[in-house]
Every structure is written in C-alpha cells, then in structure tokens.
Amino acid sequence: MAAMATITDRARALTAAREPFVHATVVRAQEPTSARPGDAAVILPDGSIEGFVGGACAENSVRAAALDALRDGNTLLLRVLPVDAATFPDTPGARVVVNPCHSGGAIEIFLRPVLPALLLGLAGSTPISAAVARLAEFCDFDLAPPGDYRGATAVVVAGLGKGEQDEIRAALEAGVGFVALVASRRRAAALLDEMELTDVERARIHSPAGLDIGARTPAEIALSIMAEVVRAVRVDGLAPAGDIAPAGGPAASTQRPAVDPVCGMTVLVGPETPHALVDGQEHWFCCPGCLARFTAA
C-alpha cells in the first residue's frame, strides 16, 4: 500500500508540474509472475520507469507500449503472455506481447497516458478576453501566466488597441505557432505592417480572430475564437510552443527500437539493454535469458 501511495504522490507531482507520463497499473496477474494486481508505476517520456509492474522480461514491453500511448494519447490494455499461452482475441484497445521468461506467468497492465492540459495565453482586459477565459476553462485549457507564453498552444490578443504589439512579439519569441489578434482586418494589417515581421512570423498571426459565424457579442466572439483554436489543434495538428511532437503529445523518446532476434519482441535500446556483437553485427535482447539462448545457439 505504501508503494501505491508513493506512485500516486509521484503522479500528482508530475501532473502539477505539467509533465507528461503514463500511469501503469497491473489489473490481473497469473503466477509465477512477480507482479501482483494493484502494482503500479509511472513511465516518463525518456522511457524511465518508476515503480513496479513486472520483472525485466515484461519491462521492455511496458516501456515500448507506454511510449506509444504517450505519442497517440490513447489508453491501452497490455497483455504479457507466456510463449505457449493461448492467444486472446484481437480486441480494440488491447495489445498482446510474448513473455520470453522461462518462469512463464501472464499479466495484464492498464496504461493510461496523462498529458498536460493545453495551455492558452491570453492578453488584454476586455469583455472579449474575459469571455475567452471562461470558455477556455470550460474546454479544459489551462491559462498561461500573463506575458509568459512558453509552452502555450495558442495566444489570444484581445487588448483592443492596448499593448497588442508587445504581446504579439512576446508570443512569437516564445515560439507560439498560433496568435489570434482580435481586430478588424484593416486595423490588423496596419498594426502588423508597423512591426516589420518576417513572412513566417506573419503567417503565425490570425486576424480577424475566430471562425466566421457572424458573432456579435463577447461570448459569441469568444466561441468563434476557441473554435478556431480547437480546429487548429485537432485538425491541423498545432503543437505547443517548443514541442516537436504532435499536438498534445510529448517529445519522442531518444531511445531507438530494436527487435529481439530470439523472441521477436521490440525493445528500446538503452545503456542497460542486453546485447551481443556477433560477426560485426549488434543484436539487442529483451532480457538476459534471450541473450543466453542466442549466444548458446
């Protein structure tokens, strides 16, 4: 119970720090596996595992599946079965892999990616900016601290003539790919011409802000703006500032994949991954058992 509390506390701390991770929980285990139902761990984007959801034979499968879950944002039920076990039917949302350990045993691990909420920057103290803030919260966006747009997915500049150029420049320098300027087409063109922007910078600024839905009131304008932001994220693949991964996802792990030549399992190559150099070719293994079988052949 203490271990579970520790993982729970760690998950809370990562969530508060806006760090992406996968929460893994063993939901079923068959002896002689060392894992037990309720065992838990968090898997970070670099592939490191904190906690326990199985021994070395299962660890590589958990790591690879967790990083896939971080990339696509989908939950996954991972079934790790002995080599000679009857296969499960192909079920959406489930993955079956082979446990190469001689000890056998089967486990099912539920992998839940926990991604930070999308971050929205908001500039201006106007009825429109207040309406955008309310709607963004309703859409599960977090609001960036005023003037600090690092990591923001989009920035809405709704100052209506006050401090707009400074806020636009701050958003561009933070690497924000979508800056929505609340202004008429004519006023926006004049304001942006004064800023001497590059073509690339100009392309990142959207004005008039929002989809054309005939909006008139601050609430309707906010709706049109948030609809355009959501479309940019979900349809166009807009990523947070400084993020090289797909929108809502973390940067990819620096570990490269390899296929175990004995059991066929995909492993992530790291400093501690078992490997052998045979006839000038490197081979990587999920566990010392597969390495021993390969070198004994």
Q: Can you describe this structure?
A:
The chain has 297 residues and is an alpha/beta fold. The chain has two domains: 2-115, no CATH class; 119-234, Rossmann fold (3-Layer(aba) Sandwich). The protein is built from eight helices and 15 strands. The protein is elongated. Residues 244-253 have low confidence and may be disordered. A six-stranded mixed β-sheet has the order 3-2-1-6-4-5, sandwiched between helices. 32% of the residues lie in helices and 24% in strands.
Write the topology of this structure.
Elements: H1 2-16, E1 21-30, E2 40-43, E3 49-51, H2 56-72, E4 76-82, E5 94-99, E6 106-114, E7 119-123, H3 127-138, E8 142-143, E9 154-157, H4 164-173, E10 179-181, H5 185-194, H6 199-203, E11 205-206, H7 218-234, E12 256-259, E13 266-269, E14 275-278, E15 281-284, H8 288-296
Parallel strand pairs: 4-5, 7-8, 7-9, 9-10, 10-11
Antiparallel strand pairs: 1-2, 1-6, 2-3, 4-6, 12-13, 14-15
Helix pairs in contact: 3-7
Domain XdhC Rossmann: 143-229
InterPro entries: MoCofactor_Util/Proc, XdhC_CoxI, XdhC_Rossmann_dom
Pfam family, one: XdhC_C
Tell me the overall shape: elongated
Low-confidence segments, ≥5 residues, pLDDT <50? 244-253
Distance between the terminal alpha carbons, to the nearest Å? Answer: 44 Å
The CATH topology name of the largest domain reads Rossmann fold
Q: What gyration radius follows from the Cα positions, in whole Å?
A: 24 Å
Q: What class do helices, strands and sheet pairing give?
A: alpha/beta
Helical run tally: 8
The whole-number mean of residue pLDDT values reads 83
CATH superfamily of the largest domain: NAD(P)-binding Rossmann-like Domain
Biggest β-sheet: count, sense, barrel? 6 strands, mixed
The count of domains is 2
Strand order in the largest sheet: 3-2-1-6-4-5
Percent of residues in β-strands:
15-25%
